[in-house]
Specification:
Elements lengths: L2 H14 L16 H12 L4 E6 L5 H7 L10 E8 L6 H16 L12 H9 L5 E8 L7 H16 L5 E7 L17 E6 L4 H15 L2 E2 L1 H11 L3 H17 L4 E2 L1 H14 L2 H11 L8 H9 L9 E2 L1 H11 L5 H10 L9 E4 L6 E4 L4 H11 L5 H7 L12
Parallel strand pairs: 1-4, 1-5, 2-3, 3-4, 6-7
Antiparallel strand pairs: 8-10, 9-10
Helix pairs in contact: 1-9, 5-6, 7-8, 7-9, 8-9, 8-10, 9-10, 12-13, 12-15
Length: 404
């Protein structure tokens, strides 16, 4: 394979893998079959709307951008508008963004409403489309909307659109543990709102991300290398894209079309250099100490390998086994409990968040992308080797590849 072909493949790889941007091509979107079906059902049923919620970095925006490409309707045209919510937005400014995009297609929608916009105005605008057009309005980063009144008015809007059976679909997307954290008065619109939780991705879904892109590149990957990428991703597609991209580039730099574990090992080091600088800063703040015998790095690493519940929380008890393995001697909760508490303080960057009551506290990473970063740092700093990592990985991190 000549140098020009290798460069061409590397450039294509940089387009196919997108750790820093949402997916906008359906053919490259992987997994999430259940969630896609739920949203399509909401769009096709008059009076139904949807809310997509979950942790940061699980692919909510990519889902919102690509699902409509699967809506093939020879009778109705879909007019999709996607806008981002800003902390400074109120109800009127948010709908002005939407109307500005609608006016590009319809002509003059925004100019018709120079003053305050109400739920009734929104209903009338969306009712004004012809019978052959279905508007789909996606409000992304809805959790950033700080105006409580705006959230309450949005609930009223959904109720109004549903009550009047307006042939339009509103889709809210945001970071939250539940619908409660995204929209006010959601109980009153529960029948009109399809709730679409986005958990971390399963191993088979992450495998699909890699397989689809390698097929286009004419490349392959060994099973151990694929398992290594998926295990380190911790269910977060961002890291699958990041590790996948740099593994491809390292293989191509070596003149290879087959990715093996050595290429993934090199990719791990590159990933640590390319991650958001804020992660490194937060990690350093959480783990630094002038005292001898400081074990904050080890405790945080053990947290990254602890068995969580479906919301990502883990009890202090779940940290005992990984920490004891890392430290090579028994550690009980009493020996590191204060470390967990301090990792939730401002002094240590609040790297962990806490839920529950005293003696029943549960912890999780405040920033989901920190968890794989901590594991990668542990490997780099020699606190962890690959064999120990595989042994300590909780069930949800263990790759169960369809090809194995």
């Amino acid at each position: 394979m000549d140098a020009e072909t290798l460069r061409a493949k590397e450039h294509e790889a940089m387009q196919l893998f997108s750790p820093g941007a949402p997916i906008d091509e359906d053919a490259l979107f992987a997994g999430r079959g259940k969630q896609i079906d739920q949203i399509i059902e909401a769009v096709l049923q008059r009076g139904q709307h949807a809310i997509i919620y979950g942790e940061r970095g699980v692919g909510k925006t990519s889902l919102a951008r690509t699902f409509r490409q699967r809506l093939l309707n020879p009778v109705k045209a879909l007019q999709a508008v996607q806008v981002n919510c800003d902390p400074a937005d109120d109800y009127t400014s948010l709908w002005r963004k939407v109307f500005a995009d609608l006016s590009h297609e319809e002509g003059g929608v925004l100019d018709d409403f120079p003053g305050q916009i109400s739920p009734d105005i929104v209903r009338r605008v969306l009712s004004g489309f012809d019978l052959n057009t279905t508007p789909i309005i996606v409000l992304d980063e809805f959790d950033k909307l700080a105006d409580r009144e705006a959230k309450a008015l949005m609930a009223n809007t959904i109720k109004s659109l549903s009550d009047y059976s307006v042939p339009a679909t509103l889709i809210l997307v945001g970071v939250a543990n539940s619908v409660d954290g995204l929209i006010s008065e959601h109980e009153s619109i529960s029948r009109a709102l399809v709730q679409v939780p986005m958990p971390r991705m399963q191993a088979q879904e992450l495998e699909e991300i890699i397989d689809k892109r390698l097929a286009r590149l004419g490349m392959k990957i060994t099973r151990p290398a694929l398992a290594q990428i998926i295990g380190l991703s911790s269910g977060l597609p961002h890291y699958t894209h990041l590790l996948g991209l740099y593994s491809v580039r390292r293989a191509l730099n070596a003149g290879k079309l087959l990715i093996d574990e050595t290429h993934v090992d090199e990719a791990e080091r590159l990933c640590l250099e390319k991650v958001d600088a804020s992660l490194t800063s937060q990690y350093n703040r959480a783990t630094q100490s002038h005292r001898s015998g400081n074990i904050y790095k080890e405790v945080l690493l053990a947290c990254a390998l602890a068995e969580p519940d479906e919301r990502g929380y883990f009890p202090a008890k779940a940290v005992e086994f990984p920490l004891s393995t890392i430290m090579r001697k028994p550690y009980t909760t009493e020996m590191f409990g204060q470390h967990l508490k301090k990792l939730n303080t401002a002094d240590r960057g609040e790297v962990l968040e806490v839920d529950g009551t005293p003696r029943r506290f549960r912890y999780r990473f405040e920033e989901p992308l920190m968890q794989p970063y901590v594991i990668l740092r542990g490997l780099k700093d020699g606190l962890l080797d690959k064999a120990t990592m595989k042994r300590l990985m909780p069930n949800y991190l263990q790759p169960r590849l369809s090809s194995l």
